[in-house]
Model the fold of this input.
Amino acid sequence: MNRRQWFLRGMRAGIPICMGYFAVAIALGISARSAGITSLQAALTSLLINASAGEYVGFALIAAGASYVEVALMEAVANARYLLMSASLSQKLDGRTRLWERLLLGFTVTDEIFGASISVEGKLSPYFTYGAFIVATTGWTGGTFVGAMLGDVLPVRLLSALAVGLYGMFISVFVPEAKKNKVVMALVGTSFALSLALEYIPYVRDISEGIRIIVLTVIISLAAAIIFPVKEDNSRGA
Done:
């Protein structure tokens, strides 16, 4: 496929992500307004940061009157997992992918866009991820703007119901692959079990959730790579 075809394919994949993002971002926008941030400022934040956990942390710290240094450090911790996702996606890119294309791809990576991109069979074109991002970010940015406009109008129960949609969408990303591959299914189950266990282990549960996710990701990925290595296809096409 050429770049245009990859881009359009990515846009189609970004539609359900956009819908899930819009619902969840409404709650994010409300939290931004409670921190004294205007609708335009909240929307611009979502457009540039493009990370739910990072934005929630940022808005909470702003509301608490934290310093710039504190905000910067917490943002680095909350968003550090994207370094791992970007490194993983880089392994799927064609060797001819240019540096600026890789850097732009790194900016577009979110949990859901990563899931959609990594599930593409064979080599990945960065234009697929670009297309998914262009569509998805409209829902994320637009939802944040609408939420900030609504303020505290929506009832808490409705906001909770909307938030569930994002988790359901993310589950739908890896369930098909898990059904096809027993190794993936086992790894998903293991990650769920360990994540839950760490919530109850003394001292460990006091560690930042972002750091726990990073450590678990590294350990599980390393173990999977050692125990279930993926054989490289060295055959060359005509």
